[in-house]
Amino acid sequence: MSCLNIAFMTLGCKVNYYETSKLSAEFEMAGANIVSFESVADIYVVNTCTVTNIADRKSRKMLHRAKRLNENALVVAMGCFAEANKESLAESESIDLVIGNDRKNDAYGIIMENYFDMTTVGSGEKTERENMSISGNNDSVKLNEHDENGRTRAYVKIQDGCNQFCSYCKIPYVRGRLKSRIGTDVSDEVKSLAESGCREIVLTGIHLSSYGVDRSGCKSFVELGGEPVAGLASELAGISGIERIRFGSLEPRIITEEFVRAISGNIKVCPHFHLSLQSGCDKTLAAMNRKYTVDDYRKACGILRKYYDRPAITTDVIVGFPGETDGDFEQSMRFVKEIGFSDIHVFKYSKRDGTRAANMEGGVPESVKHERSRLLIEAGRELTEIYNRSFIGQKQLCLVEEKITVGGTDYYTGHNERYIKLIFDACGMSGDMENQLLEVVPSETFDGGMLLCGRL
Ligand code: SF4
Questions:
Q1: Ligand 1 pocket check for 165: Cβ under 6 Å
Q2: Looking at 300-395, which runs of residues are DSSP E strands?
Q3: Dihedral sign computed on CA atoms, order 214, 220, 223, 226
Q4: Is 170's C-beta closer than 6 angstroms to any atom of ligand 1?
Q5: How many Cβ atoms are within 10 Å of 164's Cβ, its own excluded?
Q6: 356 plus 402 within the same structural domain
Q7: 104 CB under 6 A from ligand 1?
Q8: Are 82 and 190 part of one and the same domain?
Q9: Edge to edge, what strands does the sheet with 312-319 contain?
Q10: Which of 24, 64, 85, 149 is the most exposed place for a label (fewest CB within 10 A)?
């Protein structure tokens, strides 16, 4: 397969990146050349996203761009936008193959065996093929492949799917119900990552807090008190070479005394928690079918702060949800400031056909969404600055990720346990510091959020 060039384009969440990485590794192991998406390739795979209208547009644009780059290439659409639009994409002249989410684990075989005769690639010939859509009932989803995001940090997907049905979200429809990996599969992957030099893992999934519910006989993660998540983290902490464990996005309802007591006893779990808020207004939360209140969220943050010194609490907020009034938005803004997040991701509500919110009254004009988004982003920046500054003058452990050059000077950058980006002068440092843990002391903020540090 040495002559086969394959290009990947990934849109959307960390789970999509994990899945592309896994598929790319399969092609690489088989001898394919992984080339940039702007190159002339034999196969283009676009792992699409449908979380917003913008994501839909980008997904479609990338698929058409692939065909323009090489009209003879096999163009493959997979991911959530592909799943949600299987029939129409299968009819498109730009797209040769659509792989449903329930067959994504077989994508390599589907592409290889059914749509591309690899043995003829060298001569530039291709077998006949028709535009087709592939999907089926593959319940035994294997998520046991290896992913590496550089040497330092790796994302490890531990579950897929979601049973929550937030009123604005299409994910449960396109990714299906909850499916958890078995712990030994995850451990094997993490051991392999550690052996290849990885020092930090981020446990990720579509609804991470529900990990293990499908194997427990319980109906909801709330009944389990987060035990499977804490138990898995404890098992992974025993793997030699792994220094840090982070969780991807968690639901506020998993944060109980019991859960936080368990994870805070695990020194490898970083004091960095991404708790999705979505709105700081109870009326809007109820309309979103989020199953917690502002007060539940406040209590969760209180528990984290009881067990950890200044934990980094980061979040997502949606602005302009149908029916969100100026007063509702102001409540959200006040709540965000009260919690003092260390980072906020702001999203403008985007209507997704097929969801309950798509039929709700009280649509918010784009100009209002835009202004609310601007105000919240600005508030978030100020909170980040306040939070990061609280560490000035205090020793930090930096996991060094890369060397960069700014204004002719070499610097190393990395993150501390709280995921604050640190930067320090590389001058006079002999040897490669990448992937090392170094103690540094921040002296000032740099370029809107990073901490400029001196070495010890
Ligand atoms: S928890 Fe809600 S927003 Fe998150 S994937 Fe599930 S339905 Fe979507």
A1: yes
A2: 312-319, 343-348
A3: positive
A4: no
A5: 18
A6: no
A7: no
A8: no
A9: 249-250, 272-275, 312-319, 343-348
A10: 64
Centroid of ligand 1 to alpha carbon of 274 (angstroms):
14
What's the maximum distance between 2 C-alpha atoms anywhere in the chain? 66
CATH number, domain of 168, equals 3.80.30.20
Q: Is 147 contained in some domain? A: no
Answer whether residue 139 is part of any domain: no
278 and 350 housed in the same domain = yes
Nearest CA to ligand 1 atom 1: 164
Which residues span the domain enclosing 296?
153-389
Residue 329 to residues 48, 138, 280, 283, Cα–Cα distance (Å): 31, 42, 8, 11
Amino acid (one-letter) located at 247: F
Residue 127 has pLDDT above 70, yes or no: no
58 C-alpha to center of ligand 1: Å? 21
**In total, how many domains does the chain have?**
3
- Residue 90 has what pLDDT? 86
Residues 79 and 225 in one domain: no
- Do the beta carbons of residue 215 and residue 179 sit within 8 Å? no
* Residue identifier of the C-alpha nearest atom 8 of ligand 1: 169
- Ligand 1 contact via 13 beta carbon (within 6 Å): no
Asked if 270 and 362 sit in the same domain, the reply is: yes
| Least-confidence region, from 120-124, 173-177, 232-236, 289-293 | 120-124
Query: Could you tell me if 247 and 297 lie in one domain?
Result: yes
pTM beyond 0.90: the answer is no
- In short, whether 164's Cβ falls inside 6 Å of ligand 1 is yes
> Given 68, 100, 134, which residue is the final one in a domain?
134
Could you tell me which residue, 352 or 126, shows the higher pLDDT? Answer: 352
Ligand 1 centroid, distance to 80 Cα (angstroms): 13
Contacts of 126 (CB under 8 A, 6+ apart): 72, 74, 116, 117, 120
Query: Within this chain, do residues 129 and 161 fall inside the same structural domain, yes or no?
Result: no
Q: Which residues of 331-356 are buried (b: 16+ CB within 10 A; e: fewer)?
A: bbbebbeebebbbbbbbbbbebeebb
Same domain, 119 and 165: no
Q: Which two tokens stand for residue 122?
A: 């060298």
